[in-house]
Amino acid sequence: xxxxxxxxxxxxxxxxxxxxxxxxxxxxxxxxxxxxxxxxxxxxxxxxxxxxxxxxxxxxxxxxxxxxxxxxxxxxxxxxxxxxxxxxxxxxxxxxxxxxxxxxxxxxxxxxxxxxxxxxxxxxxxxxxxxxxxxxxxxxxxxxxxxxxxxxxxxxxxxxxxxxxxxxxxxxxxxx
Length: 176
Hints:
This protein is mainly α. The protein is built from six helices and two strands; from the N terminus they run H-H-H-E-H-H-H-E. The protein has one domain. The protein has a two-stranded antiparallel sheet. Helix 1 crosses helix 2, helix 2 crosses helix 4 and helix 4 packs across helix 5.
């Protein structure tokens, strides 16, 4: 249970909007990274080179999320939607906790995205739909969770809270 003095959890609609924005940003990061990999590597990307590309892209995304979460607790979409990721103490998560959150999110929400791609290509195969259900189940968990947290946050000991810019006083009146 969060400390009563800690910031309030960010609302579910705000977190979902941020997740949608994050999806667009991640797609751009992956595209730029894949293009840079393709420019540097000779020939067709098959076999071992394809595996190297996948490891490279996973490493780029891992570095992006870990750097943002451990440094300030915010990615660009989280800043836009005025949210931040905190641990149980209310501070940005440590590297091991952020890595755990990343792994859990990849296994749940990431699986959902993989399921969408699979179901798009092969709609009659059940694996795509199973992966989509896993991803949706992780997000729908927030409807049942006592603090409205996603499953990966609950398991990792993190939560997304509302963030106010330092030094801002939102109760001040505007000058006349």
